[in-house]
User: Which sequence fits this backbone?
């Protein structure tokens, strides 16, 4: 697996790094640390791959702290299953991240929800928005949580499933990772409610499969029990992993229920497919993945089942 980590000094970037330290990647994985020197740091032409072409002393002032930080991160993140290398490029952050994703054939790109920028007119969060919309791979958006990620012995992960190819790919990604400590995975399926219906939630915790199915049937108002089957199949797919698994079904709006459940469960990471069962070709403003990545109270991994052209 190839992972790209775009770094800066923002708290969201630091949260993403802290989260990555909890992951154990598949053997042979490669992590690329990417730092982008921007126009406000005295860089020359936009998009250039050369380092700052100014006086030697000015270049060293910019690059030495960056190189020192990258070296420290390499030592911190390298493991027996993960190789780490660094890159420093010039240009517009979103453009450069997308370029590296394409050239290096990245599987997962990691960046903070809101980065640091002193460029006049650059909106906070615009880089993550740009990359999330246009990247050809899965995207992990880092964000601090109410719980201190550094001190956690395990993680609370919320996996939203709707039976789409991207949702099943999210299951595969979760299966490929190992986590330190006692990790709990909450499986959530959301049934779209009619306008006249009131939102409801049922959990399997402490209930048998039959009891849960009966509650889910009542919740569905005699609609099909696809959600029950999906949760069971997803649980079976994750059975070989050493996770504590919970099942939850909600009647409501997809994005709202995912965000609400993430808050209630105090999730450290939400995993959601890029495209739902509607099969949209790309993320549009207001889509489930887009809304969750914007408003979740924690980091969000948006998974794509196949590379976009």
Assistant:
């Amino acid at each position: 697996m190839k992972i790209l980590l775009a770094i800066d000094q923002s708290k969201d970037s630091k949260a993403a790094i802290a989260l990555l330290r909890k992951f154990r990647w598949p053997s042979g994985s490669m992590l690329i640390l990417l730092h982008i020197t921007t126009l406000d740091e005295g860089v020359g032409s936009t998009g250039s791959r050369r380092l700052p072409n100014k006086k030697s002393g000015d270049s060293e002032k910019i690059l030495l702290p960056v190189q020192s930080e990258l070296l420290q991160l390499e030592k911190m993140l390298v493991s027996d299953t993960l190789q780490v290398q660094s890159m420093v490029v010039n240009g517009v952050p979103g453009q450069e991240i997308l370029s590296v994703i394409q050239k290096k054939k990245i599987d997962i790109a990691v960046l903070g929800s809101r980065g640091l920028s002193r460029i006049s007119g650059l909106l906070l969060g615009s880089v993550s928005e740009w990359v999330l919309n246009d990247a050809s791979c899965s995207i992990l958006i880092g964000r601090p949580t109410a719980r201190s990620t550094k001190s956690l012995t395990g993680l609370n992960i919320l996996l939203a499933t709707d039976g789409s190819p991207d949702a099943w790919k999210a299951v595969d990604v979760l299966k490929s990772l190992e986590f330190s400590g006692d990790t709990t995975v909450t499986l959530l399926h959301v049934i779209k409610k009619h306008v006249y219906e009131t939102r409801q939630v049922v959990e399997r915790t402490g209930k048998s499969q039959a009891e849960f199915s009966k509650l889910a049937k009542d919740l569905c108002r005699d609609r099909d029990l696809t959600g029950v089957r999906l949760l069971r199949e997803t649980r079976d797919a994750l059975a070989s992993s050493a996770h504590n698994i919970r099942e939850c079904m909600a009647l409501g709006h997809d994005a709202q229920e995912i965000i609400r459940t993430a808050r209630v469960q105090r999730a450290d990471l939400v995993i959601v497919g890029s495209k739902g069962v509607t099969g949209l070709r790309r993320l549009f403003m207001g889509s489930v993945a887009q809304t969750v990545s914007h408003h979740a109270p924690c980091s969000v991994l948006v998974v794509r089942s196949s590379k976009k052209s």
Summary: Residues 41-56, 116-124, 278-286 have pLDDT under 50 and may be disordered. The first strand starts at residue 2 and ends at 6. The chain has two domains: 2-142, 149-303. Residues 2-142 form a domain with the Rossmann fold fold (CATH 3.40.50.620).
